[in-house]
């Protein structure tokens, strides 16, 4: 009854259902993927960073379990067994970097044409693109008749540079001497001001001392009774 119902379904859907059914009931530790278009890594049940040794070891295990004459595939139709075995072989060639049709090792895989096309397009864009950060340098060409102009421009530039620097170099000793003289004058003025401040402070101290003594004598005179009786 089950097979009669499957026979009424479309051929492609019938194959998908059979594949999922046998994949779920097989005793293989690495069952064949149930979806119709599995990737090589999904067929081998390996991550994308698997080594070549892991790929080779897994290939031997898949061949042992999914060989058309193995016991684990005895319930599958002959066409499905052959298709699975061919898919495993093609996946193994792909993971090893070989072309399944010719057996030659590919450097770019199945995306070589697309990569070359994108590379050429990028090169065309770079060739027509103006580099604002590094603009092209223009070559300065001059003949023998224009050399005197170049020499004159160079001479004028050197003379202008010398005239601009010479006054500063000539005035440097005078400016140093003048700065030193100002420094000495400032130090002398500071010493004079300090002496005046010390002298003024001494005078104030003597004046305050005299006033304190005078006030003390006046107080003693007021407190003395003999002076009052007199």
List descriptors.
DnaJ_domain; elongated; membrane; 8 helices; transmembrane; 69% helix; mainly alpha; J_dom_sf; transmembrane helix; 230 residues
Helix content class: 55-70%
Count the beta strands: 0
Number of helices: 8
Secondary-structure element string = HHHHHHHH
> What characteristic shape results from the CA principal axes?
elongated
- The chain-level mean pLDDT equals 75
Largest sheet: none
N-to-C terminal Cα separation, in Å?
A: 158 Å
User: Uncertain regions: pLDDT < 50 for 5+ in a row?
Assistant: 18-26
Query: β content, as a range?
Result: under 5%
Q: Which structural category fits the helices and strands? A: mainly alpha
User: Over all CA atoms, what is the radius of gyration?
Assistant: 54 Å
Summarize the structure.
By secondary structure, the chain is mostly helical. It has helices spanning 2-7, 11-25, 40-44, 52-66, 78-95, 112-128, 147-223, 225-229.
């Amino acid at each position: 009854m089950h097979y009669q119902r499957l026979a009424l379904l479309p051929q492609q859907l019938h194959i998908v259902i059979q594949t999922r059914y046998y994949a779920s009931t097989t005793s293989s530790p690495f069952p064949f993927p149930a979806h119709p278009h599995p990737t090589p890594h999904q067929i081998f049940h390996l991550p994308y960073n698997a080594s070549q040794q892991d790929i080779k070891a897994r290939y031997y295990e898949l061949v042992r379990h999914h060989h058309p004459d193995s016991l684990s595939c005895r319930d599958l139709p002959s066409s499905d067994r052959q298709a699975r075995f061919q898919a495993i072989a093609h996946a193994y060639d792909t993971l090893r970097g070989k072309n399944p049709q010719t057996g030659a090792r590919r450097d770019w895989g199945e995306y070589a044409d697309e990569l070359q096309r994108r590379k050429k397009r990028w090169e065309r864009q770079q060739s027509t693109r103006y580099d604002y950060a590094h603009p092209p340098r223009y070559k300065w060409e001059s003949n023998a008749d224009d050399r005197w102009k170049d020499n004159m421009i160079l001479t004028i530039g050197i003379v202008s540079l010398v005239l601009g620097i010479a006054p500063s170099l000539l005035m440097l000793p005078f400016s140093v001497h003048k700065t030193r003289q100002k420094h000495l004058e400032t130090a002398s003025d500071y010493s004079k001001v300090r002496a005046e401040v010390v002298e003024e402070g001494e005078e104030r101290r003597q004046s305050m001392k005299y006033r304190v003594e005078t006030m003390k004598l006046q107080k003693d005179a007021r407190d003395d009774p003999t002076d009052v009786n007199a």
